[in-house]
Model the fold of this input.
Amino acid sequence: EAGVVQSPRYKIIEKKQPVAFWCNPISGHNTLYWYRQNLGQGPELLIRYENEEAVDDSQLPKDRFSAERLKGVDSTLKIQPAELGDSAVYLCASSFRQAGWGTQYFGPGTRLTVL
Amino acid sequence: TQLLEQSPQFLSIQEGENLTVYCNSSSVFSSLQWYRQEPGEGPVLLVTVVTGGEVKKLKRLTFQFGDARKDSSLHITAAQPGDTGLYLCAGEGGASGSARQLTFGSGTQLTVLP
Done:
């Protein structure tokens, strides 16, 4: 079974440019997460989706970040405009949860470099 | 702001040595997870501990959840080069997280030299 797929794996852009990341979760997983991982740090949650509904986006910088999960499957995370401090690895994870906790499976991430 | 403090931040040891990594917080978590992350990959779940005082073993890895569910430790016996990676602890819930939110520690970068 395929794991969480993310693209692109690497992206280099200049500041003030827009950028988008794509995530395809594991088939059947109803919960999708976007995390940001700065160098030398653990991942920090940006947004969590339950099916197509964003249920936890308190850490998403809404002035420049946006996300969507159409039809409750694939998701995109967009930054516009990008700033130097946005350089990080953006991780997508998915899980299947009914009651209680479901194991999160992470994708390989997209490494963003903003020049 | 990371609520989970991991120590040490970096650890380099020789093959065959034992080591312990610590994960501490002032918050109580409903469960705590340990992950290993290799370069260019996402974190992979190793174990989940739920009950205060719980001990779980995974081959040469021993995980313990503190009695008060605020801290945890990971002990590796006879480390091997294949154990090299970034070890992350993550707590579910906690003071600043929702009931189903994971808060990650800053990680311990382990290097096992052959």
Q: What stands out?
A: Chain B has a mean pLDDT of 91.
